[in-house]
Amino acid sequence: MVRGKVKHQFIENNTIRRASYRKRMKGFKKMLSELTTLCGVMACAITYGPNAQAPEIWPNEDEARKALTRFQNCSPEEKARNVLTHEVIVKKRIEELKKQLQKQIEENRRIELTNLMYKFMKEGPDALRGISYQDSIDFEAFLDERRLLIQKKMEILKNSN
Hints:
Oligomer: single chain
Radius of gyration: 30 Å
Shape: elongated
Largest sheet: 2 strands, antiparallel
Order of helices and strands: HEEHHHH
């Protein structure tokens, strides 16, 4: 059975919240277990449940101590390499989005110039009235690029016959 979309907000009802906590902790521990088994990595979890007297440790206290000791014994460079702060994650995401935006801007510009080319082919020189100087330079470069592409394709066809 497929679960519906879950709103990420505090659950007001205590009974439902405790039941949700138990189910999610069970799933979390299962995922950690699968991660350690399938990928051969050390992992541990220390959780402070809302009604627990002491923290819950997974898989057990000895294994958790080994994992934490190993992490603490790492050099600061190793720790920094393996730990991502929220700031680092956000900066990486911003860089990805900037690249994505630049690609979209270039694609939109290519589409604009293609449309202008078709308009020019249909209407003639009147289609170019009122375009900016920069647009005319870009349009000329675009047409040269298209001309070279057509010449290359013609050369390939000529050589294949």
